[in-house]
Amino acid sequence: MGIVLFENKKTCCGCSACASICPKGAIEMKPDDQGFIYPVVDSNLCVSCGACKKVCAYQNENSLHEPVRAYAAVNRKQEQLAKSASGGVFAAVATYFLESGGVVFGASLDIRNGQSIPHLIGIENIEQLERIQGSKYVQSAVEDTYKQARQKLSEGRKVLFSGTPCQIAGLYGYLKKDYNNLWTIDVICHGVPNAKFFNDYLGVEAKKRGGVPIGYSFRDKKRGWGMNARLDLRRPSGGEKSIYIPARLTSYNTLFLDGDIYRENCYECPYAHKERVADMTIGDFWGIEREHPELLKQDAFDERKGISCILANTEKGVELCKKITDRIWLSESTYDKIARKNGQLSHPSVQSSRRKIIMELYEKAGYDGVEKWFHKKYRKQIIVHSIYNAIPRKVRVALKSIIKN
Ligand SMILES: Cc1cc2nc3c(=O)[nH]c(=O)nc-3n(C[C@H](O)[C@H](O)[C@H](O)COP(=O)(O)OP(=O)(O)OC[C@H]3O[C@@H](n4cnc5c(N)ncnc54)[C@H](O)[C@@H]3O)c2cc1C
Predict the structure, then answer these.
(1) pLDDT tens digits for 14-32?
(2) pLDDT tier at 171 (50, 70, 90 boundaries)?
(3) N or C: which end of the chain has fewer CB within 10 A?
């Protein structure tokens, strides 16, 4: 009989700290019937040493920090800003580390033979930065990045580790000690769907559009800062094409934004509050037009290009902000201003009654079943959003301000 790692799926975030620490290699991360990964113990290999339970962030106390400073921020480099989901703070911090000989860990979405692989990777040169820029709205596998980070830290290298709050808590649990040469960033996170579900969506979408996926961006800024996506395909004839996908016109993006397809533990996330796990928290500065209208009068803070929020949660985080002032436009804000339109800073996402229907449908009928259900259930929304998206942005903005007044 091997060790019992957790009693309830709501208490496992799939960070794989347990699998990373196991001295016998007895724990493997495996998908359940709905595609969510959980640690599975091989009772033949397990010696019940309990190392796995000691590193589990859900079963041990985490060090949490109240934000010390809060900012609105935008990357000064236009190329980095354009490839980032929000204001490009992550790229600015990562560049600082890479230029000073550091190693940076972050999420990459690799697509091989039409199959997507969302996972954390470590990079050591600026040419690779693009891979870990941009939001991937799907759970990224930690794989052996905790081990790699520990190795780099013990070599005395500066390490920047970024990910979701639970991945950062998992890293601290795994490392078990403080390192002066480690800095961490967590994203404000409203929850993660699983990699299999996303991959199946990608297959259905690509088939419908006629091609094989070669790239996917969850946040394409072609029509401004928002939640619209881009799918890159190889045509059967051999050429390539890119398709711009407005968020509310596809099943995956809609179900993601409505919080209908996350891991079970996300709905009770122990990190969705003011006290943060990482040295620095980054997110979108939603609601900036109400909180800081004065900033939008400056060219640097452009709503069409994206604006980030930063919470500097530790002295390390505060120092880091100072180190990158030549790389970003920075303006003081407050936690309250940032949290007002970012619910994940005060409570976890709420689970809807739709989640059960969708996930059971996925189990029985695959993503095709989910797609059919979506098009039936959301018919009206799709029509309204198709019309909305056909209206040029300038006209939309004018209409909005007329309606407001
Ligand atoms: C699943 C998820 C949910 C989010 N929900 C919110 C939200 O509700 N409100 C909000 O304000 N912001 C949210 N964000 C953060 C937001 O989308 C941007 O990532 C953030 O603002 C950083 O933007 P940037 O322009 O500085 O950097 P970018 O270059 O856009 O982002 C890169 C950073 O995001 C990390 N990252 C991207 N995808 C993943 C992933 N799958 N797993 C782990 N780390 C990842 C990278 O490691 C890197 O640190 C979420 C991000 C993710 C991944």
Answers:
(1) 999 999 999 999 999 999 9
(2) very high
(3) C
The structure tokens listed for 193 are 């769907």
Is 312 found in the same domain as 249? no
The residues lining ligand 1, judged by C-beta closer than 6 Å to any ligand atom, are 84-91, 106-107, 118, 132-138, 140, 162-164, 167, 185, 187-190, 192, 282-284, 308, 342, 344
Choice from 13, 187, 349 to test ligand 1 binding pocket (greatest atom count within 8 A of CB): 187
Please give the distance, rounded to the nearest whole angstrom, from the Cα atom of residue 65 to the centre of ligand 1: 20
Q: What is the CATH classification number for the domain harbouring 18?
A: 3.30.70.20
Number of structural domains (the chain) is: 3
Identify whether residues 107 and 247 lie together within a single domain: no
CA atoms within 13 A on the CB side of 235: 7
Q: Sign of torsion, CA 324 96 135 164? A: negative
Task: Give me the amino acid identity at 172.
Answer: Y
Examine residue 63 and state whether it is found in any structural domain, yes or no.
no
| Domain-terminating residue out of 299, 324, 345 | 345
pTM over 0.85: yes
Quick: pLDDT tens for 208-257: 999 999 999 999 998 899 999 999 999 999 999 999 999 899 999 999 99
| 147 and 100, same domain (yes or no) | yes
Residue 389 maps to a domain: yes
